[in-house]
Fold each of these.
Amino acid sequence: MLHLDTGNTGFMILCTSLVMLMTPGLAFFYGGLVGRKNVLAIMIQSFVSMGWTTVIWYAYGYSLCFSGDWHGVVGNLHNAFLRGIALNTPSPNDTIPALVFIAYQMMFAIITPALISGAFTNRVTFKAYMLFLTGWLTFVYFPFVHMVWGGGFLQQWGVKDFAGGIVVHNIAGMAALASVLYVGKRRVLDRGPHSIPLVALGTGLLWFGWYGFNAGSEMRVDSVTAVAFLNTDVAASFAAIAWLMVSWLNEKKPKFLGLLTGAVAGLATVTPAAGYVSPTTAVIIGIVSGVVCYYAVEMKNKLHWDDALDVWGVHGVGGFLGIVMLGIFANKQFSPEGANGLLYGDPTFLLKEVTAVVFSSVWAFVFTYAMLRIIDGFTPVKVTELTEEMGLDEAQLGEHAYEQVPE
């Protein structure tokens, strides 16, 4: 039964709009990080998700996430094509119409696979990406939404993930790592980042949208919404400064790109904990994520993984770290519906969080690797060396981001 609350509903419509803005923000963030010849090819991968993921979400995605239950792993097709959803159908929070909840969750579904695209930039054919987008949502993203948020077995077991440390960042980051290892290195050296101002614009839009991502995950307006909002900004800010300081010490100059990347790492890491911990914990999460994610990226460089835009180091490691720190620092004083972590007397909660994030890491890695191999059987995943030489904008799209200047 719907008990409409106009304040909650209005707030959730605003948050949905903010989360929608994050995907164009991601496109700018990634677009600035690549060379001039591959800007449009990386940006279209984010923008096409806004279209195609919506189609899938309407057809069967929402239903697989939030209707019914198959062995605690995934839902059923009872609400396929939004069948049975009326004006007065309530969402899990009965003060908000299901129609708003469907739109809000759809924005999460849009950005999550788009995050992965930064890992295999300049290397993947558009046709293979479309198949990847479809398969990854169906076999990785939708099951984890159901398991953690839709009444599946992880939720029933007591696993908490406020806004997507497992459901968004960890599985996207681990999928990115699997993609990098499957697709291999770029054969042509990329001259990016070609536009740090574009990266800064993308970071600003992501940071702005993240308030809707985290605060909106409370699904209503109350004090937990406020703490989630504050924690989001605190963690991002402390992580940005931590990354800046560490990179300054190591590289002898304060790097703007480091500041921007650090902010995104802090945002990703605080996401699972935002509404379950104190602002002081958000400070700790920010500092730890800035330092740990920086060294994760350094490790990736030493191992010569060609994760072009550091999706694994920022989102995979950040999401994992955030879940572990939630298991340590969760505090019911800041969320009565949350849990108490290790420091507040419940070591079993930490064990559950760690088990869940290890499980999600393995699932996302294995399914992604297998899916890319299957897609390769139908259509080549990796572009030719000639396409890389020419640039994907020209070779795949026949378009240019900038006026062509003879080299």
Note: The first helix runs from residue 6 to 33.
Amino acid sequence: MATTAAKVKPAVMGYLPNDQPPFGKMILLGLQHVITMFPATVLCAMLMGFHVSTVLTITGLGTITALIGSKLSMGKFIPLYYGSSFSYIAAVTAVTHAQFGVPVSDHLLSIVQAGFLATGIINVVVGLLIRLVGGKEAVDVVLPPIVTGSVACTIGIGLGAAALGMASGSSSGIATGSNTWWVVALITLVATICYSVYLQGKGFIGLLPILLGGITGYIIAIPFGLVNLAFTSAVIRAPHITFPVFNDPMTISIIFSVGVMCIATIPESTAHLYQISLYVDHLAEQKGVQKVGLSRYIGLNLMLDGLDDIINGIFGSTAGTNYGENNSLMVITRNYSGPVLIAAGAIAILLGFIGPLADLVTSIPTAVSGGLAIYLYGVIGMQGIALMMSEKVNLFDPRQLAIGAVILIVGIGGNIGYPGGFIPFPILTGIFPSGLPAIATGAVFGILLNLIFVFFKPAVEREAIGEKAATD
């Protein structure tokens, strides 16, 4: 009996996409997702002049719709959370001239919404084409692991300056914080890492490191005077809904200038799906169940991205993308539950209607968010490396090195080195008045380099193919 008992493996803690935790645990895990997405989503809304309550509500609705769409389409959830995308900020503010935190006129919002609808339609069309031409195998020709892995790595590391800016109070480039910001941020960071490492395997509490780290940082921030506990919002409030217009002279220009920015979100979304698929399958293997294989559903994933943007465009929210920081949260906690993400979307919707609840989340100090972001953004970059390792990318091959090198330098260098992450490029000022979006440009360069190598193979590879054909 003792021998038999010794062979029994301990239960592996974690949730696969179709797993549903008990209700109370599901709410806590969902709240952790909301805390993770909140800083970036709210910051995007405030930078672009959109109403924060509306953005929270509609991004929550978009997330729930995408999750239900994946479940109805293939019988399983694609566990991704949708928030506001930074890729559209320059194109939008060029039209709205938004001042930080001040909502612009309904008319301007309605014009921009037409552009968001365009991004949604483009994503749906691209996703449909991918599904028609053969899924992952066909996509790997254009977006091989060296591209998607390098893009993921670029996104995470490229956000490093933003994380440090939040931690130090200098996200605008001007130091507004103090040493206390660093103290709070570093305590939050170290506490969160300790929770994620030392609570792993300790039951349900091991799935809550970000929530616990955020609470720790929040408590530490109170005596430093960084927490504003003045709740001023009405108990119940209605989100400010606006609808797109198509008869304004600016509409065509906006549709083009905003719609084209999906060149940033398509590689990003594909990289996120590859990342999460890798880790979901690893958990399934540990649990001794069949692998889920989410990476097969690239086309559907892009169609759901497009559906999310269409919902945002219709109701007055910012164009979105699935969030790498929430992917990082899932990897850290090994919680990939679709029902938990639906709960998170429902909480986000409530934030738009319940003023005190939104005030509570808004009261989380930026220093605390920065401490969490250092960890979460770093994990995004590490997932990109893990993806390339898993796919056995040969980094001794000059072609692979060239593709990865260009993506990393253009994406990271441009994102950190130029205002707003836009590289000055005078030739295309008519299309990109603020410059080329660095991460998207790095991804496009990598895709083009890869296609050159696909169609113009080196002599060594041509000879190898010829010898193989002769042997066969």
Note: The chain is about 65% helix and 0% strand.
